[in-house]
Structure formats: C-alpha cells, structure tokens
Amino acid sequence: MIKINDKRRLEKYILNHRINEIFDNDIKCFMELFYFKRNEYICKEGEDVPYLFFFVEGKVKIYITMSNGKSLLICFYDDFRIIGDMEMMSVKPATNNVQAIQDTYCIGISMETARKYLLNDVKFLRFMCGSLGDKLDKCSNNCSINLLYPLENRLASYILATGQKLNCNGKSVIKINENLKEISELLGTSYRHLIRTFNILIEKGGIIKNNGGYEVADEEILKKLSADLYK
Length: 231
Known about the structure:
Layout: E1 2-4, H1 7-16, E2 32-36, E3 41-43, E4 51-57, E5 60-65, E6 71-77, E7 81-83, H2 85-90, E8 97-100, E9 104-110, H3 111-118, H4 122-148, H5 151-162, E10 164-168, E11 171-176, H6 180-186, H7 191-203, E12 207-210, E13 213-216, H8 219-226
Antiparallel strand pairs: 1-2, 2-9, 3-8, 4-7, 4-9, 5-6, 5-8, 10-11, 11-13, 12-13
Helix pairs in contact: 5-7, 5-8, 6-7
Domain Cyclic nucleotide-binding: 15-118
Protein name: cAMP-binding domain of CRP or a regulatory subunit of cAMP-dependent protein kinases
Keywords: DNA-binding, Kinase, Transcription, Transcription regulation, Transferase
C-alpha cells in the first residue's frame, strides 16, 4: 500500500464518484489516496482494517479462507464500493480477504475518524445499507454459480473476470497468470479436475497454452460458456 500525495487525482476521484454527496457533512479533509499494486492485499482475514476504504479504480477479488485452509471465492469489485464497512460497525478484524487483481486505487479515511464522524451520519448510513444489500446480492449470485454450474462454465467466467489484459506487439492479449492451485481452491475443485477443465477449454478453442501458462484465444467462446458471469 502506497499513499499517493496527489490532490488533483484525489479530487478527480471524489468528483467522478460523487463521494461528497454520500455524507451529511464535508469530510474531504480526512480523505487520503492509496495505491495497491496487482496481487497486493487491501485487507486480510483476521487482521485489523486501519482505514474505511472507498474503492475508486482497478479490480479486486474477495474470498474467504475456511478452517480447513481452503479458500472460496465470494465476489469481485470493479466499480465504486466501500471496503471495511462491516469492520467499522463491528469493531472486529476483517472477515474476508480483499486482493487487488489489477493496479487499484482507494480513498481511505482512518477507522478512528470514520467511527467518530460517520456512525451518526444518517445520509452515509443509508448509503451503506444500500451498499450492503448490493453486496449480499452479489454473494447470492456467485454462490448460485458455484452450486449450479459445472466447472467448465465457472472457469470460463473466472478467466474473463480475472485475466490480465496485456499489450503484446500491438495486440491485446488476456493472460491467466494466477497460481492454478489457488484457482482450484477458489472454485471449490481439485487441482487435477481444474487441469482437465483447462484442457477442455483448449479443445474448444477458448484458450491456448503458451510459454508454460495460458492465454485467451477466443473471448467469445468463453463468454458463451460463462453464462452468468461472476460479479
């Protein structure tokens, strides 16, 4: 996490997402801008969350680690979201892992300041209730995908949601650079079954194996397979 001392960029995010409009009072003076590089954690399960974050650019995945050490995907964020709202209310450590899958920017307000000024801010609390309802809807959608779709469909959806878009010799390429064992855990399957499913997607022309990794060969094939996308 790197603090970015760029007032113009901070102001741009505040205006673009109309952040000041969700508070009864102007608390801009307490806002700070932070940068998280790809794969960095914004918060980790079991650790204190030092800031109430407003996610303003990038993409993150949210997942939970079970008592048996395995992980399960909950959802993704790629639009304006609050991170740390439950921790602000409950004064407890983070219950989920929030990890950047692209370079990400968040506006932060220290938890101490957030609890002091926002717990009695009716306008903000109403906004937060709507935000929590939307998060619940996302979780419900993704749980349904995990339960009702074969791995082939879920993997296609996951690749589209997390693939890293790169420019290779003027051509846009989507690469899958994550650890395959971690992907198998997040999707609730075995490593062997995941590899078999990658091979099925190769046979169907959706992806190719390249330099020891995978990249998307035909995005449309994956979109057709993914049906209901992870959100």
